[in-house]
Amino acid sequence: MKLKEILIHTLITLANSNRRCSVLFFYFLLLEVLLAPFFTPALTSASEPLPNAAGADAVAEINHEGEQALIQGKNSMEKGDYEKSVPLLTAAYEKLPLLGDYALLWRSRAYEGQGNTDKALEDLKTIKEKYKESPLVKKARLREIDLLIKKNDPSVGRLLDEMVKDNPSNMELKYTYAQYLKENKDPQKAKELFREVFISTCPLSANASNELAPSDITVGDLVKRGKALNAEWQFQEAEKVLREALARCDSRRYKDDITDSLAYSLFSQKRYVEASALFKKTKNSLWRARSLFRAGDIDAFQSELPEFSKTADKRIAEVIIAYGAMKRRQGHSDEALKIFNSVLSRYPSAREEALWATGWTYYLSRDYKNASRLLSELAETYGDPKYLYWSRKCRELLGDKEPLRPTADQDLHDFYSYLTCLKNKQKPPALSRTYLKTSLNSVVAERVDTLAEIGLKNEAAAELLLLARKNPAPDDLISISSYLEKMGHYKTAEMLISKMPYNEELHALYYPLAFWPEVKEASETTSLDPYLILSVIREESRYEPEARSIAGAIGLMQLMPQTARRYNKNVKVHLKDSPELYEARTNILVGSSYLKQLLNKLGSVPLALASYNGGEDAVRDWLKNGKYRTVDEFIEDIPYQETRNYVKKVLTTYFEYLRSNRDGDVSLAHTRIGEL
Questions:
Q1: What pTM, to 2 d.p., does this model score?
Q2: Which of 92, 99, 191, 658 has its CA 20 to 30 A from that of 229?
Q3: Active-site annotation holds for 540
């Protein structure tokens, strides 16, 4: 007994002092096997503390010390205190092998800061060999290349070539490779890579241009760059590049292609008159029609309508239908019906759109009998909830006493189902109280949890995103989305979960309480429903604080800087620069203030939302000319398709949030929305 007690006491002491648990456990097990025949009673005695408890405590303490060393070592490295950083990160690597790749990456940077390139390279090599599935491998390879370039190592060319092949869209990497090739006497290949970088929209494009002679950049290169800039919404820069291409081009056929791209740049800058003139040159009827219509040059549009109608493209039918709707809004319903009938005869593929426009014209003209006939036909043929809703409303107006109700197969998340609930003063169906229980692979989960717990949330998110790119099973996708949502990466979480069919059990992932403290503050400041604020955030930016629109709107609630400056003082926010709108609290406070002012002026949520998206003056014109009897008529007849869809989406999201708040008052929601 004496020997056994001494051995156990010694092991516990060592565990608490030296903290080499894995080794100690091995020796303990060995001793247990060797000594069990002699000391079995002592090993099972309930009166003596078991060493496993001490060992578990030792493991926990080692992990804690490793975590602290990792954070302190990283902070020291970032401050440039490399002498302090290296031993801390060494301790982290030894005591926290779970995150050893992070310790090695940051230690390599510390070694580099000390001028010890060889040790830095050793750490990077260890990451590549020992942590092959780590999201840090790519960073390790890039750092390795940078260090080897400084050493003039002959293997750099091969490593760069491999890296470029593995990452063909990384223009910064291609630029680095091109510089290396230029300095190592392979100018032709360097030139090819510089041209690729120039054509792209990456920030190094201008640098790449400086590496090329004017003769190296072809008209084709300019066109490709111009189109790439258009695709990235950089329309002013695209215009410059395309004008240069046009000036250098001597091919008539190629000129038309360039002119079309240039006209699109102008159209996207809302310079519709200039765009329409260029589209006329290229005989692009579709975009000529769109440009004239947007420019408000209806005389020119009408004179060219016979020519437009010869175009086989179905999309021209959509423009002609919009023209007919404009005529109807001007009070010329008979003329509008003739236009829709002409579309029906000339564009069979646009039959559904033309029938809807005809039925809707009858409805707004109060010819409910003809409207009911067409809308019922549409509902039976296509099953769209929109047609079902309005055909039932027609029957109700014709004297059918049966109240409007969703059909059994109608999607609960459909806008028209919620309108029906509102009209009947019913609460939306309750959410299920059960939630899917899933979990990640234990090792991944442990890494993610540990990173998040020690404040490295971006690193934790990177781990999850890497896993998401590997086409995970549905249960893993749910877990990844759930983890990201808890870390505040709402946009990515919602984007991932949206790959799956909607399931009530996942409702909170589709409709998270994102930025809830900021939303609650804005709600209390402006007296707006917090769920309405959240709904606007979801549909404006998908919870992305850094969002920027094609028109220059910024942040979570997509505020134009000039609008934000008019309303910031209402919530005691003092904006100095537009970038401040990327800050969540500022954006939500100012955006809520703006929305509240619109609600006060216009009296209902749909009108306020339409103004938020399409402009207050436009909404007032629509109300004046439309003479709508109910708010659902107004929503359905919003002239701007983008604004019409926006209002429907925000209201649908609003009701989804109300579903998760079972104390919500539907009658109050009805008051906010208006008379149906």
A1: 0.84
A2: 191
A3: yes
